[in-house]
Amino acid sequence: MSIENKEQRLKSCIKACESAVIAFSGGVDSSLVCAVSHEVLGDRAVAITAISPTYPPGELESARSVAKWIGIRLLVIKTNELKNPEFCRNPPERCYHCKRELLERLEKIRKKLGFKHIFDGTNRDDHRDYRPGLRALREFGVISPLAEAGLTKNEVRKLALRYGLPNAEKPASPCLASRIPFGQEITAEKLKRIARGEEFLRSLGFRVVRVRDHGNWARVEVGKEELDRAKELEERIISALKAMGYPTVAIDRGGYRMGGANL
Hints:
Elements: H1 3-17, E1 20-23, H2 28-41, E2 45-51, H3 59-70, E3 73-78, H4 85-88, H5 94-113, E4 117-119, H6 133-139, H7 145-148, H8 153-163, H9 188-203, E5 209-213, E6 217-222, H10 227-232, H11 234-243, E7 248-251
Parallel strand pairs: 1-2, 1-4, 2-3, 6-7
Antiparallel strand pairs: 5-6
Helix pairs in contact: 1-2, 2-3, 2-8, 5-6
């Protein structure tokens, strides 16, 4: 099926839902859902961004900017996964516990607004990966318009470019807890240290960055095309992260790969 046909399916799916609150992280997937929903539903679509200790700093400003560009109403709420012992234990189904808390909040807002559905930015490719958060989506009856339309991640980016979205080519920025290997406790201190480390790497101009927190050492991942530059700046990077509290720091010579914390 062509991307044009999938775009029409996307619009039809959204139109049929009549009204929705949208889980809006500020990433390209949820941004496209917001853009099309605002086009199709107007004021019957509202974006909701949840900030928490696991939400990368700086992302809220980006989300506000994109929402303003789209013209969609944005609500900002606060959540705190660290209050949930099951989440802090960091089991393989960690994302399920996080997603449930978010959806409980969105469900309350949906009812208050009198809207019919909750949307999220899950695309077709997400169903091919290990995503325990998908169980929470099913439990709350969340609609994933991109997946319903059969849109892959690559197609989402193409459509985002067609819509002129300012973050169409923005790298993914999942929650900071994803930098901590399963089974290792998630704490506020670890999350803050990860955030500081990644903010420092971005200040050096790196586009794709992950500071994988292994407790007493950090493994730094950057985009494969940025590895040569990371090697040139290796001493500076290691020195800075050690000053942030990591006794040992190593740059991963393999570069960034999804789910790298558990490799």
